[in-house]
């Protein structure tokens, strides 16, 4: 982005807008309510307290700012914003129930402990004192001079307040989390006591190879019913997706290569063969007129250049051309336009914006007034650079102003606006000048310079290998034929036809309304497909076809299931629980066979199942048996009498029958006090998360978003 965008990544106001990480849990709304009588702009309720559109938008803004700073996509954050909004309400409610109050004085006193400020050393002086007065002053200046940035601060402050309340709530409640002497003694006993056992394991997988087991829907439903909390779900949809990508054909590839070769050696039709990429003296203009990617005037190190040319530019003369060569989905020809040492420059600036430009949304001065002010400041600073800081109060870039106007060390490759970079490149240390950009007038002062590695300016003529109209038409024909084949058919037929033709088939079983993308798909059309599936007019078995703009891809969607908020549909979670349920069914069969055989010893059981008798040493705290975690087996080892054969034990990986040979004590290092402190620390670390989850599980949460979005779609 331009210089102001780069600078704005640095100030304290936007540094690390941190989401409330401790609140990142899944909320499960009890049910959806009809909006008859509901107030406009109300997205939901938490224990009766309304979640407004403003609440939701503010949280979404924070997440989008954070994602942008970290170079992550800013789309698809709506569900996370909802969860954090709900969790923030829960924390605030608990805070107020405790009789606590977050005053303005408390906010400023606690600000230095918030991660956003505590992790920035520039917020503290040389003695480690928090610069609270400076930060307050900066906020007041924003309030007076930049309404947009001040409004952003208010949103950020709200997120900070929730974090402060969370710390207070967790600190007050966790103060009662202790570990008794008895608990510590029991942990030490479980850690030190060892049992020597002989055992026979009937492995589930080995048994299933000889005795296949089919898990029915009823089997899955019984498991889900037994664990209702585990399978509590928001409303979701079970989708069948077939993706028809418009992949460029070999003919499309050859046509693109032919096109770039023509521009490279002959020129465009408009040039009538007089100007081509090899002989043009107007490289940037030629690229602007003929390339799919614009000309980049910056200098790059050799390692930043495409692999095809990075080892060739050092010895190449200015004007040398390379290619055509292939870079992913592009054909490229390159020309070395210039080379020079890539100096690093330390500079500072004062930005004088005016009404109507990109940084002057809340500025009333005209362009002429801005230029006059910038020129006068520039003249004073040029004569006496020491006076630079006196004029920072006029800067429309509060981020750099908070750093004395500094924008740090930059190189020609730094993503600043070209005019700013040009001044840095063409002026020496100590220079001061006024430069105009789309953000206003910059008074720039160069503080230092140091030489760097060689930088190269390269003009790249690029042509993307795209699917031709013929290829897109072929994809459309294929997708249309497919949807005609499966119209009104069952989902099994939909899936079978797709697989038979080797189409790209997906079956995401629990797609949420606001998750943004469909797992495994990831196109710009995903949100539209999801909205289609959640439309209240939609019925199971409906199909539709979607076109991905700009690519020609087609998506055929099949609505295979409608899950309302509540308990998950058993088939929707089959992949998750089928292995568990299968093992439970197998365990019952194995245990029944063992009991009916009435074996008197382990050898008889081993013979019955063609298994092997083994030995192991186990304890309760670390219940590993032959490389598998088997807590029930460890429990049986300490519960059965010495020399007696145990009842069959349904383990994690198989059914076990064991005989305890002996018990010993293997004393480990660490006294009782250390054990108590260790357990207490571990419990305290987990407490905040578990406490919030408990609040969520017991809260009355209403989510009106689907109804609101459906109403908007219908308008």
UniProtKB/TrEMBL annotation:
- Transmembrane feature ranges: 12-29
**GO molecular function terms here?**
peptidyl-prolyl cis-trans isomerase activity
Q: How does it sit in the membrane?
A: Single-pass type II membrane protein
Q: Please name the InterPro entries in this protein's record.
A: PPIase_dom_sf, PPIase_PpiC, PpiD_chaperone, Trigger_fact/SurA_dom_sf
Q: Which UniProt keywords apply?
A: Cell inner membrane, Cell membrane, Chaperone, Isomerase, Membrane, Rotamase, Transmembrane, Transmembrane helix
Q: Does the keyword Iron apply?
A: no
| GO-annotated cellular components | plasma membrane
User: Where is this chain's protein located in or outside the cell?
Assistant: Cell inner membrane
The record places domain PpiC at: 342-448, 587-662
Q: State the family it belongs to.
A: Belongs to the PpiD chaperone family.
User: What is the protein name stated in its UniProt record?
Assistant: Periplasmic chaperone PpiD
């Amino acid at each position: 982005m331009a210089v102001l965008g780069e600078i704005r990544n640095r100030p304290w106001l936007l540094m690390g807008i941190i989401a409330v990480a401790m609140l990142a849990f899944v909320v499960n709304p009890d049910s959806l309510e009809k909006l008859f009588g509901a107030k406009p702009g109300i997205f939901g309720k938490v224990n009766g307290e309304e979640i407004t559109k403003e609440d939701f938008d503010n949280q979404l803004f924070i997440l989008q700012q954070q994602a942008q700073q970290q170079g992550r996509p800013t789309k698809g954050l709506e569900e996370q914003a909802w969860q954090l909004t709900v969790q923030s309400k829960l924390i605030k409610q608990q805070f107020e129930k405790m009789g606590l109050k977050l005053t303005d004085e408390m906010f400023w006193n606690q600000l230095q402990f918030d991660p956003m400020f505590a992790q920035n050393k520039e917020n503290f002086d040389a003695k480690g004192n928090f610069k609270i007065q400076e930060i307050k002053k900066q906020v007041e200046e924003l309030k007076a001079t930049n309404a947009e940035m001040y409004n952003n601060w208010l949103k950020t402050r709200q997120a900070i307040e929730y974090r402060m309340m969370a710390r207070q709530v967790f600190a007050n409640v966790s103060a009662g989390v202790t570990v008794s002497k008895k608990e510590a003694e029991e942990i030490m006993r479980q850690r030190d006591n060892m049992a020597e056992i002989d055992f026979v394991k009937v492995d589930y997988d080995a048994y299933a190879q000889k005795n296949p087991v089919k898990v029915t829907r009823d089997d899955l439903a019984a498991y889900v019913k037994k664990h209702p909390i585990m399978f509590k779900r928001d409303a979701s949809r079970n989708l069948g997706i077939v993706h028809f990508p418009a992949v460029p054909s070999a003919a499309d590839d050859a046509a693109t290569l032919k096109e770039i070769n023509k521009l490279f050696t002959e020129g465009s039709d408009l040039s009538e063969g007089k100007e081509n990429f090899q002989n043009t003296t107007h490289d940037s203009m030629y690229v602007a007129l003929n390339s799919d990617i614009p000309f980049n005037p910056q200098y790059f190190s050799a390692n930043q250049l495409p692999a095809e040319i990075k080892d060739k530019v050092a010895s190449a003369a200015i004007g040398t051309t390379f290619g055509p060569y292939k870079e992913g989905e592009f054909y490229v020809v390159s020309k070395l336009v210039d080379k020079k040492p890539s100096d690093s420059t330390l500079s500072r600036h004062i930005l004088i914006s005016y009404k109507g430009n990109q940084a002057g949304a809340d500025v009333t001065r005209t362009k002429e007034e801005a230029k006059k002010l910038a020129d006068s400041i520039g003249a004073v600073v040029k004569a006496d650079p020491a006076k630079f800081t006196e004029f920072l109060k006029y800067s429309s870039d509060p981020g750099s102003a908070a750093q004395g106007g500094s924008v740090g060390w930059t190189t020609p490759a730094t993503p600043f606006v070209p005019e700013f970079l040009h001044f840095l490149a063409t002026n020496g240390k100590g220079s001061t000048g006024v430069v105009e950009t789309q953000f206003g007038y910059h008074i720039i002062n160069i503080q230092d310079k140091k030489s760097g590695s060689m930088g190269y300016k390269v003009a790249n003529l690029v042509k993307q290998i795209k699917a031709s109209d013929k290829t897109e038409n072929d994809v459309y024909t294929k997708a249309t034929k497919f949807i005609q084949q499966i119209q009104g058919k069952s989902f099994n037929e939909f899936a079978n036809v797709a697989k038979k033709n080797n189409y790209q088939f997906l079956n995401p079983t629990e797609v949420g309304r606001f998750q943004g993308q469909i797992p495994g798909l990831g196109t710009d059309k995903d949100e539209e497909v999801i909205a289609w599936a959640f439309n209240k007019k939609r019925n199971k078995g409906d199909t539709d076809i979607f076109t991905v703009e700009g690519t020609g891809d087609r998506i055929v969607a099949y609505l295979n299931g409608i899950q309302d908020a509540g308990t998950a549909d058993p088939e929707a979670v089959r992949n998750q629980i089928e292995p568990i349920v299968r093992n439970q069914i197998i365990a019952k069969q194995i245990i029944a066979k063992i009991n009916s055989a009435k074996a008197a010893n382990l050898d008889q059981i081993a013979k019955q199942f063609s298994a092997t008798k083994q030995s192991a040493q186990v304890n309760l705290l670390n219940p590993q048996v032959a490389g598998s975690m088997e807590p029930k087996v460890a429990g049986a080892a300490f519960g059965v009498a010495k020399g007696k054969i145990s009842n069959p034990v349904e383990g994690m990986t198989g059914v076990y029958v064991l005989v305890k040979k002996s018990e010993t004590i293997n004393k480990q290092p660490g006294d009782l006090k250390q054990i108590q402190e260790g357990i207490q620390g571990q419990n305290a670390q987990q407490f905040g998360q578990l406490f919030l989850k408990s609040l969520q599980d017991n809260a009355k949460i209403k989510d009106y978003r689907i109804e609101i979005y459906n109403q908007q779609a219908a308008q």
